[in-house]
């Protein structure tokens, strides 16, 4: 049973890494090529590119992290605490920008598309780029404590591991450290989640108000503004659904630290959580007209190569 869990988790993680690298790499490449061509990049493309790059880093660092975490390697990790520290802190930084850039994207959609006459909203709408920048800077308030606490826990674990030479003792210390890290991750993940949820609810309210206004004015219910609202709402809903999977996977990991034999279950939950940075890239491609058109062009090119019988076709 344990071997089945390990094998299943590794397969899931490998698929997510492949999908995530293709999707996020595609987003970064298309936006980079567009920037080279036009010598400028829109605000939305800047957010998408930064998000794609952070997720590429996250997927690879998570792959390194989880493959070096099985109990059989704990003793080796104990002897290379510097490497462990670099891996864990890099993971925290990438994970932080992964969720906060995605949440900033929800804020961007809300301010750009929603329609309210409130003076505060209009002030923020005209300065949407600054709002996103300020949001990311403010999020650093959550990043630095995570890094400091992670350093503290790693120091404590290495010190205790040196005092206790038994394998079981090292595992127990590792479980205690991991529980604290996961609890902190869960707390920090809740903030951008509620930020995005608020943006979604306000977008839906704006859509409802605009739809009622169109009906009252006897205008078509499918004008460009309503279509933009619906598109943005769908994108943010997809983001929150995937974010919920990530949130639940982290929450379920807390139940995997009581018994050491549950480590493979925790690994499976961890692998399931990586569906967020990998699959969400596909949602972003489908929801962006430029990226969607570019992906269709690539598919048409691949289809042509296949029909033409070129050896480059897989």
TrEMBL record:
GO terms for cellular component: membrane. InterPro entries: TAS2R. Coiled coil: none annotated. Keywords: G-protein coupled receptor, Glycoprotein, Membrane, Receptor, Sensory transduction, Taste, Transducer, Transmembrane, Transmembrane helix. It is found in: Membrane. It is a multi-pass membrane protein. The keyword Transmembrane applies. It holds the Pfam family TAS2R. GO terms for molecular function: bitter taste receptor activity; G protein-coupled receptor activity. SUPFAM superfamilies: Family A G protein-coupled receptor-like (SSF81321). Belongs to the G-protein coupled receptor T2R family. PANTHER family: TASTE RECEPTOR TYPE 2 (PTHR11394), TASTE RECEPTOR TYPE 2 MEMBER 14 (PTHR11394:SF23). This is Taste receptor type 2.
């Amino acid at each position: 049973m344990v071997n089945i869990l390990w094998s299943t988790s590794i397969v899931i993680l490998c698929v997510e890494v492949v999908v995530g690298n293709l999707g996020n790499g595609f987003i970064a490449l298309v936006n980079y090529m567009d920037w080279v061509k036009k010598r400028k990049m829109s605000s939305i493309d800047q957010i998408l590119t930064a998000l794609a790059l952070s997720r590429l880093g996250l997927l690879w660092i998570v792959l390194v992290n989880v493959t070096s975490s099985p109990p059989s390697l704990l003793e080796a990790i104990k002897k290379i605490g510097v490497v462990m520290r670099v891996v864990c802190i890099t993971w925290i930084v990438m994970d932080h920008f992964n969720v906060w850039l995605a949440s900033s994207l929800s804020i961007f959609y809300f301010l750009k598309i929603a329609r309210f006459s409130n003076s505060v909203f209009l002030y923020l709408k005209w300065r949407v780029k600054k709002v996103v920048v300020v949001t990311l800077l403010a999020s650093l308030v959550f990043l630095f404590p995570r890094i400091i606490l992670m350093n503290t826990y790693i120091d404590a674990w290495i010190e205790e591991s040196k005092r206790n030479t038994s394998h079981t003792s090292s595992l127990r210390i590792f479980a205690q450290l991991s529980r604290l890290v996961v609890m902190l991750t869960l707390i920090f993940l809740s903030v951008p989640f509620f930020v995005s949820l608020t943006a979604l609810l306000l977008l839906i309210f704006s859509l409802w108000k605009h739809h009622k206004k169109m009906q009252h004015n006897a205008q078509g219910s499918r004008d460009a503004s309503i279509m933009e609202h619906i598109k943005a709402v769908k994108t943010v809903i997809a983001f929150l659904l995937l974010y919920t999977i990530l949130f639940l996977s982290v929450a379920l990991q807390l139940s995997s630290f009581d018994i050491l034999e549950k480590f493979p279950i925790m690994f499976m939950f961890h692998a399931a959580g990586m569906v967020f940075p990998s699959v969400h890239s596909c949602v972003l491609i489908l929801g962006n007209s430029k990226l969607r058109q570019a992906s269709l062009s690539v598919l048409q090119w691949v289809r042509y190569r296949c029909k033409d019988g070129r050896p480059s076709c897989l």
